Automatic annotation (TrEMBL):
GO terms for MF: L-aspartate oxidase activity
Entry keywords, A to Z: FAD, Flavoprotein, Membrane, Oxidoreductase, Pyridine nucleotide biosynthesis, Transmembrane, Transmembrane helix
Protein name (record): L-aspartate oxidase
Gene name of the record: nadB
InterPro entries linked to this entry: FAD-dep_OxRdtase_2_FAD-bd, FAD/NAD-bd_sf, Fum_R/Succ_DH_flav-like_C_sf, Fum_Rdtase/Succ_DH_flav-like_C, NadB, Succ_DH/fumarate_Rdtase_cat_sf
Pfam families registered for this protein in UniProt: FAD_binding_2 (PF00890), Succ_DH_flav_C (PF02910)
Length: 533
């Protein structure tokens, strides 16, 4: 086996990930610098495309910034960074205007009483109608529009033949690009002046998710390998209503369904939300998800019912054409029968700690979208603030990159690779299934001390097995993704064990209350080195 050097190429701004955050960033940066966008084909099926509900922004004359800020702070259960919340909310209308200028086909409101040209719906946690949407497939509409513009930009080079597996650092520990694998498994090093991660969240750590191709925190761990700080990993949001169909692919039932009047019932016919929260089905997602989980345990059923039949066929067809058509294809007519739903891993409120311009603690490394922790979401993300965050921070990051200067040339270590045998795909998949089962059983909607301890022990054992394979096997995208995922799962468990309270998405009956009154709750902060302690 003879050592070989990976192919190296020089780039100006390298963007890794091509969902709404990555595409928005690329388009804005391309106005002043050249962009290389590493965007595998699977990004088309990532979280952005499946964002059905819409984008939260203050657009109606009856709404205001203070109200949106207040709603977000309540949903975040005391852990939001108010500076980040206000910044995001105030930048929202400009981001929507930009999307409209690109031609995103948002649903218009033709009613005579409309105070805004486009229809605004309401979702959980919001005190007003402020969700602009494209029917019930907003993510797809935004993603397709952005892709069209990116593909025609002369300043953007798309590399859909590469998958990033790690980042590069120079002697001063500044980020200098990424290590990638091409379709033949050959290493390529993309050296860059500035690198931006837009790789998505970590719902892929769990068995049931709302996306067919969920990220597993790969970008978070790539940044952590360079020393970046990760924050609030314990706050993994479970969307309350994913279609329950064990034999079919995941499919999200948008929060807008409840926003327009959908009602939740247990399988024995009890409407349970009104007695738990005055907001009923429109309570924040953490409350609704825990309520559904409790009803499933009470009845022994694998799901609950979400009923919209009382809205009438005309309203259902008008508001939810995509959901209705999809359910019909799966043998369910939602105009005549309730929808079986179950909570599923949906959104990571934690991630790479960044400032308001997406900058991380590692020089020349930025992060935008779900991979980042901005402080907007706190302990629980409010509905439809996610695409808003993608847009606002991508635009802010691009403004910083427009005036950023690439670091002076500094030598990088000379990398070599040795031909080794490929690890069996089945073995990698078995390890991933084991990890997901551990996380789903012990670190999901409700966690307990004993379960977290068991998860820590089992994941540590799994980590040793995977690492041994990493040393012996040839570079492989699936194996690299698993290695990132297992270590992020361990850090998530560590964060959950350290938080000795229940707050937002983190609920532990062994410490069921908030931190004692008078004490300010703190975000959790972890680095990769913490796994060694």
């Amino acid at each position: 086996m003879s050592p070989t050097r990976p192919t190296r190429s020089e780039h100006d701004v390298l963007v890794i990930g091509g969902g709404v955050a990555g595409l928005t960033l690329a388009l804005h940066v391309a106005e002043t610098r050249r962009v290389t966008l590493v965007r595998p084909a699977s990004d088309d099926q990532g979280a952005s495309r499946w964002a059905q509900g819409g984008i939260a922004a203050v657009l109606s004359p009856q709404d205001n910034f203070d109200a949106h800020v207040a709603d977000t702070l309540v949903a975040g259960d005391g852990l939001c960074d108010e500076r980040a919340v206000r910044f995001t909310v105030e930048q929202g209308p400009g981001a929507i205007e930009w999307l409209l200028s690109l031609g995103v086909p948002f649903t218009r409101d033709h009613s005579p009483s409309a105070s805004y040209p486009y229809h605004l719906t309401r979702e959980g946690g919001h005190g007003a109608r402020r969700i602009i949407h494209a029917e019930d497939a907003t993510g797809r509409a935004v993603l397709d529009t952005l892709k069209t513009h990116v593909e025609t930009s002369p300043a953007i080079t798309i590399r859909d033949d590469l998958v990033a597996i790690g980042l590069l650092a120079d002697a001063e520990q500044r980020c200098r690009g990424a290590r990638c694998l091409n379709e033949r498994g050959q290493l390529q090093e993309l050296l860059a002046g500035d690198t931006v991660l837009a790789t998505g969240g970590a719902s892929g750590l769990y068995r049931h998710t709302t996306s067919p191709h969920p990220a597993s925190g790969e970008g978070m761990m790539m940044a952590a390998e360079l020393g970046a700080e990760l924050m609030n990993l314990e706050f993994q949001q479970f969307h309350p209503t994913c279609l329950y169909d064990p034999d079919g692919p995941p499919f999200l039932i948008s929060e807008a369904v409840r926003g327009e009047g959908g009602r939740l019932y247990s399988t024995d016919g009890r409407r349970f939300m009104p007695e738990l929260d005055e907001r009923a089905e429109l309570a924040p997602r953490d409350i609704v998800a825990r309520a559904i989980d409790a009803e499933m345990q009470r009845t022994g059923s694998p799901h609950v019912w979400l009923d919209v039949t009382h809205l009438g066929e005309t309203a259902i067809r008008h508001h939810f054409p995509t959901i209705q058509a999809h359910c019909l294809n799966r043998g369910l007519d939602i105009t005549q029968a309730p929808i079986p739903v179950v909570p599923a891993a949906h959104y990571s409120c934690g991630g790479i700690a960044t400032d308001l311009d997406g900058s991380s603690s590692v020089p020349h490394l930025y992060a935008v979208g779900e991979v980042a922790y901005t402080g907007l979401h706190g302990a629980n993300r409010m509905a439809s603030n996610s695409l808003l965050e993608c847009l606002v921070y991508a635009r802010s990051c691009a403004a910083t990159l427009a005036v950023s200067h690439a670091p002076a040339t500094s030598p990088l270590p000379t990398a070599t690779s040795v031909d080794r045998e490929q690890l069996e795909t089945q073995r990698i998949q078995q390890w991933r299934t084991t990890m997901r089962d551990i996380m789903s059983h012990h670190v999901a909607i409700v966690r307990r001390d004993a379960g977290l301890e068991a998860a820590a022990r089992k994941l540590s054992e799994l980590s040793r097995e995977v690492h041994a394979a990493m040393v012996q096997a040839a570079p492989d995208t699936s194996l690299a993704s698993l290695w990132h995922a297992v270590r992020l799962a361990r850090l998530t468990v560590l964060a959950a064990r350290q938080r000795r309270e229940s707050r937002g998405l983190h609920f532990n009956p062994d410490c069921p209350h908030h931190t004692e009154s008078g004490l300010t709750p703190s975000p959790s902060r972890l680095r990769l080195a913490d796994l060694a302690t």
